[in-house]
Amino acid sequence: MAMRERFIDRFATMAQSGSPMTKTTIFWARTDIEGLERLEFEHQLDGIMATSTVISLEAGGFRLEHRWRLDPDWRAQSVTVERWNAQGSGLLRLDRAGTGWLVNGTRRSDLEGADEPDLSVTPFCNTLAIRRTPEDIGAGLTLDTAYIDGHALTVTRSCQRYVRQASRRLRYIDLGLSRGFEADLVVDDDGLVLSYEHLFERVG
């Protein structure tokens, strides 16, 4: 856990900049492998801007930055992902285009009707679906996603479901690329993940 503690100290120092009235900073740690994420989001007049840095030992080690532009209803309008690893660097951008998505400027017909992007290395994107899941206990939401593999920087259509077990607890069920995977998610009042079974926990 020493590496995790060093990352937290380092990123906590970075978090001192910016206005505390308009920005929120969150840290998540991986629970299955050494890794940490620092995410900062800001409410603006036309929506939410979020920026994040992920550092992990997964897949030989990598650094990844992702930037989101959301509308006031927390629906993604664009996401940009940059990744650095031993093989070099890469860049990927998704933009909402009507009912579909542009990937690096090219419309992808296979992503037509996909509701939201789902980036593999962060629990932040789960919030977009969680905030749309009905509040009634037992209610659920099923949605198609544009799944972004953060290591490979590829985009593939997938499907997932959320079932509300309590006011701040949901069950995640993968119905697509990782069919059979399920996890309990505990969230705060804003729908941001506090714990994600098997993968993530909030540490700051």
How does this structure look, described?
Mean pLDDT is 92; it is low at 10-21. The chain has helices spanning 2-14, 126-130; strands spanning 23-30, 35-44, 47-56, 62-70, 76-85, 88-97, 100-103, 106-107, 116-119, 140-149, 154-166, 169-174, 182-187, 193-196, 200-202. It has one domain (2-202). Strand 7 (100-103) and strand 8 form a beta hairpin. The protein contains 2 helices and 15 strands. The protein has a 15-stranded mixed β-sheet. It is mainly beta and 204 residues long. The radius of gyration is 16 Å and the shape is globular.
Question: How do the strands and helices of this protein lay out in sequence?
Answer:
Elements: H1 2-14, E1 23-30, E2 35-44, E3 47-56, E4 62-70, E5 76-85, E6 88-97, E7 100-103, E8 106-107, E9 116-119, H2 126-130, E10 140-149, E11 154-166, E12 169-174, E13 182-187, E14 193-196, E15 200-202
Parallel strand pairs: 9-10
Antiparallel strand pairs: 1-2, 1-15, 2-3, 3-4, 4-5, 5-6, 6-7, 7-8, 10-11, 11-12, 12-13, 13-14, 14-15
